[in-house]
Structure formats: structure tokens, C-alpha cells
Design brief:
The structure is a single chain. The strands form 3 sheets. The chain has a 4-stranded antiparallel beta sheet, with no helix packed on it. By secondary structure, it is of the alpha+beta class. It is built from 2 helices and 11 strands.
Length: 214
């Protein structure tokens, strides 16, 4: 066997492996790792995110309701919300309050234990619809986002509005699309990395390309 040839081959293989390992380390060091999923603790009774986690698993770690106790469930309270059309978005729960969106981009806050209506916010009261399309889609609002002490709702006239969770007062608003171009918002905002993400569309009409704003 030609040991000199074998030695050179092994040195070459070793150098190639070192280069590959170094490149992999550099890529790992330069890449920003994806954030870990937001999951509530097993004892938390809050439901702050759509789906109760950033992965939208719709799962709760609570164990009080199980196969042995489910038959004991019953109606605790019920309330009629002052909205023209029924809500279609999922309610969110935080600090003893239930937050729910309704038609006309309304937002309602109810006491979790009693169902008492604490406040109502109506962002479209003094804003007539700009088109027939908006008139139709004002009946749709698919949910809210919670961030710190704010409730955030997207309105059919292209605004994001942040509302104080305790008082129902508007804290700020911003425009994310152009209603005159038949854009509007019906979806629920998402929050992550200190940013709010919202999609804008044209009512499935294909009039303009939809887009996402942060």
C-alpha cells in the first residue's frame, strides 16, 4: 500500500470536514433563531391569543374538566350583546374580562364571572361606509388581539385601533390600507416581537392584491 498517498487523502478529507463544520457554525451564528411558541402555564385561565398559543393549537392545560366531571357542566350566565349581527370571532380572556368583537368592528368587554357588560367600543359610529362592498363587509369581524393592557381591532375602513382593556377608551389608531381603493380589514390582528400584523384585502373580489402590514 502507498502510505504516502493514503496519508494525503486522509489529510484532504479532514480539511474538507473542517471547512464544512466551520461553515455550519458560521451559519448558525448568523441566523436568528425562531422565537419559542407562546404557551400559557397549565394553571392559567386566561385565553389571550387566538387558539391560546402562537401555534393556534386551541389547547388548555387545565385539568378540572375531564371525562369524569364533564357531565357536571351547566350554564353559568348568558348575555345578549348589543350588535346587529352575531359575532364570528373567538373571544379572548385576560384578567377577569372577556373581549369579543362584533359587526361594525365593535368591541365588547364583559366580566368573566358575571357576564356583566363592562364597556362597548364602536369605531364606525361617525364613519359612513365608503362603498357598497364595505357596507356588506362591515357585518364581518373575525377577532381581536391583546397586547399588554390593550385590545386591538381591525376596522372595515382600514384602521387598526388600540383600546384600553380596563376603560374601553381609544389609546391610538393608525391606517393600514386605502379604503378608497376598496381595501378593508375583516381579519383578526396578530401580535409578535412588539409588532402588530394585519392582513388587508378587497373582499375576495380580486380588485387589488391583498397585503400584510406590520
Amino acid at each position: 500500500m502507498n502510505f504516502e498517498w493514503f496519508r494525503r487523502v486522509m489529510i484532504g478529507v479532514l480539511l474538507v470536514l473542517l471547512v464544512i463544520a466551520g461553515a455550519g457554525y458560521a451559519m448558525d451564528a448568523g441566523e436568528e433563531k425562531a422565537p419559542s411558541p407562546v404557551v400559557k402555564g397549565p394553571e392559567s385561565t386566561d385565553w389571550e391569543l387566538l387558539g391560546n398559543s402562537s401555534e393556534i393549537q386551541h389547547h388548555s392545560g387545565l385539568s378540572q374538566i375531564n371525562t369524569e366531571t364533564v357531565s357536571e357542566l351547566g350554564l353559568a350566565w348568558a348575555i345578549d350583546l348589543p350588535t346587529r349581527d352575531g359575532p364570528i370571532g373567538n373571544p379572548l380572556i385576560k384578567n377577569g374580562r372577556i373581549f369579543q368583537s362584533g359587526s361594525q368592528s365593535q368591541v365588547f368587554a364583559n366580566d368573566l364571572k358575571t357576564g356583566k357588560l363592562l364597556w362597548t367600543y364602536e369605531p364606525l359610529t361617525d364613519r359612513p361606509p365608503g362603498s357598497f362592498l364595505e357596507t356588506w363587509l362591515r357585518s364581518l369581524n373575525r377577532g381581536l388581539a391583546l397586547y399588554e393592557d390593550l385590545v386591538i381591532v381591525g376596522t372595515s375602513d382600514c384602521r387598526l385601533v388600540a383600546i384600553d382593556q380596563a376603560t374601553g377608551a381609544k389609546r391610538w389608531e393608525t391606517e393600514t390600507c386605502d379604503g378608497e381603493q376598496d381595501y378593508m380589514i375583516t381579519g383578526a390582528p396578530r401580535v409578535g416581537g412588539d409588532k402588530i400584523f394585519i392582513g388587508n384585502s378587497c373582499g375576495d373580489m380580486g380588485l387589488n392584491r391583498g397585503h400584510v402590514d406590520a
